[in-house]
Every structure is written in C-alpha cells, then in structure tokens.
Target: Ferrochelatase
Amino acid sequence: MGRVGVLLLNLGGPDKLEDVQPFLFNLFSDPEIIRLPFRWLQKPLAWFISTRRTQTSQENYRKIGGGSPLRQITEAQGEALKAQLAEVGEQANIYVGMRYWHPYTEEAIAQIVADKIEKLVVLPLYPQFSISTSGSSYRLLEQLWRENPKLQQIEYSVIASWYKQPGYLQAMAELIRQELDQLPNPDEAHIFFSAHGVPKSYVEEAGDPYQQEIEECTHLIMQTLNRPLPHTLAYQSRVGPVEWLQPYTEQAIQDLAHQGVKNLVVVPVSFVSEHIETLEEIDIEYREVAEEAGIENFRRVPALNVHPVFIKALADLTVDALKSPSISLSQVNQMKKKVKMYPQERWEWGITTSAEVWNGRVAMLGFIALMIEILTGHGLLHAVGLL
Ligand SMILES: C=CC1=C(C)c2cc3[nH]c(cc4nc(cc5[nH]c(cc1n2)c(C)c5CCC(=O)O)C(CCC(=O)O)=C4C)c(C)c3C=C
Ligand SMILES: [Fe+2]
Ligand SMILES: [Fe+2]
Model:
C-alpha cells in the first residue's frame, strides 16, 4: 500500500476571545447550519447573527479559560491514533480538518496533496451523522474534490458514522461506570444522556438521521453498561427561536428533579472531546439548574478525549476502512438516503442573463428589507422565527 493518511474531521472552535466573532461568522455562513432558500441572504445574516452573539459567546469562552480546547484535544487524539496504528503495523500520517476554524479542512487537504498521500481514510470525530456536522464537512470535501484533479487521484474511503463500534461503546460504558461508582448510592442514580440538538425541521423535513442514530446509540451504551438503571435522553445547546429536538436538557433535568430524582449522572453523547458545551453549558449552566431544582449529586461523565479504549476504536475503524471496499463521498450521501443537503446550488442551474438581472433586483430589495428589520426589530424573519 502507498502512503496512508487519516483525515480527522471536526467542527473547530475559537482559540482565543478575538477569534469568536470570525468563528461564528464562518459557522453561520454554512447553509447546513442555517438553512435559507437564498444564497445571497446567507452572508448578511451570518454577519448579523455572529455580531449579535459574539458578546454572550465570548463570556462563555472566558469562563472556560478564554478559548476552545477543541484544537489541542483533536491534535492529541491524532497523535494517539498515529501511535496506536503504528503498533498494529500501519504507518499513517494524521491530518486534522476543522470546518469553521484553524486548522481548516482546506489546509489539511493542501497538506495531504503536498505529502503525496495515496490512500486516505476520512474519519469524522462525530459518532453520529448529522447534516449539520459530518454532512457539512462531506459537502465541503465533495467541492474540494471536484475542483482539484490531484485529489481525484487519491484513493479514499469515508466512514459515515460509527456509533455502533464496540470499542467506542465500551469506552463510553467504562467512563459512565467510573462516575456511577463515585456516587454515595450508585443504585439510585438516573443516567441522563445529553446530546447536542438540531432544529426539528432537519429531522422531519430534511430527513437527517441524527435523532434516530442518537437514540440507537444511547440504547447500545445502556446495553453495554449493563446496569438496571433508569435513563433519559434530552437535547442541549439550542440556538435561536425555532423549535429544536425535544425534550430540552434544561426542562428534562427540572422534570426529573420534580419527580424526586436526587442523583444524576450526565453523559454528553454526541461529543468525543471536551468543549464549550460540556465545560460551560453542562458543568456550569445545567449544574446550577439541577441544584436549584433539588438534585443533590450532579456528576458529569468526562468526554472520551484520548481514552485508550476509544483511541483503539478509532484505529480499528481506520484499519477496517483500509481493508474494506472504498466508500465515496457521494455513496455516503446516498446511504443516508432521504437526506436533503441544503439545495442552494440548484439556484445556479440554468441561469440566464435576465434571471441574473432579476436575482440582483430581488437581492437588493431583500437586503434593504433585512437592514430595515435589523434596525426596527420587526419584519418577516422575526415573524418566521429566524431572528
Ligand atoms: C454533534 C455535535 C454538534 C451538532 C449536531 C451541532 C449542531 C449545531 N450547532 C449550532 C450552533 C453552534 N455550535 C457551536 C459550537 C459547537 N458545536 C459543536 C457540535 C455540534 N453542533 C461543537 C463541537 C462546537 C465547538 C465548541 C467549542 O468548544 O468551541 C456554536 C458556538 C458556541 C456558542 O456560541 O454557543 C454555535 C453557535 C447549530 C445552529 C447547529 C445545528 C443546526
Ligand atoms: Fe454546535
Ligand atoms: Fe451553547
């Protein structure tokens, strides 16, 4: 086999407080994060929302040390994976490709080309698939592949989602067990899975398999844990006023407390690294909610980070992908059959000069309407819940 590479995909996070606004701008510029019917509206809206959100977001990053630990942890995972692969006789270069901050996916791909990688495994650091996470990165990769003939010569294989991988399930169960056993009375614990949410319309209208994969994943973790304890699944980190997957974490914690639950073990289920939504949202915000509602023991299970059983699981996934027939980016999107990646590209097809003129006029009117809405606080986007 020629030179082997593994591309680890993740979302990325601001390294310091000054990075927060441009990071948020990149995130909200992605049509898989805010799904709008018009391409031209994406950037003005991304600018507006990122500017409005920066201060709150910066305050949260300040509480966890002034930046996201995601880059450092992902790089450590990469080094551990390289060492684990070497142990089983597989020499591979590891690349980190973040979607919205450094090191960007584009930078990783440029390095992969420069290093003359011949066989590449694409491994998202999201156990479950969502249009908004792995889906967005696959879409970017598809575009980079289309644009670069050198990339088209690389034999590559994509791992779509991997929440059923036994080593991953074992590592999760082990971490939960450790947390349970530190409670004064482990048999009275309630296990609370908190997954990152997505808007409900992603699942119900666009066909995102995320909710189904999260539900199956929590079921498999409970099976692997093999303890007769009650459990709940809820969704956190809602952004904006539209409806997201329910129940919401905050409400579900309060409901359990009112039902008399006193010992809660919170499991962050859609992340494999510590980041703002574990360190700030769960450890600070939800802990406060829980304690105010009467929970006496609130314990959070740590993220997998470089847990050796987890790193071995990533190595097993890589080795399996190298041995099995390759899976292409377009196959992954077909496998997630009904998924509608946001079809903004469609608007480009069949463009004529007169259509361009009308596009420009409508864009200008829309932009003026947006500015009026921003200044007055009233308008269509407020009415449909986007602002
Ligand atoms: C499985 C994981 C994730 C899903 C699904 C997801 C969807 C999603 N996220 C937002 C909005 C934001 N996400 C932000 C940060 C962030 N999100 C994830 C993971 C998932 N997002 C990660 C790993 C991070 C990085 C955290 C870090 O440590 O820096 C943020 C910025 C943080 C903040 O301001 O709260 C936003 C905003 C949407 C809208 C969405 C689905 C549509
Ligand atoms: Fe997010
Ligand atoms: Fe948040």
About this structure: Residues 345-361 have pLDDT under 50 and may be disordered.
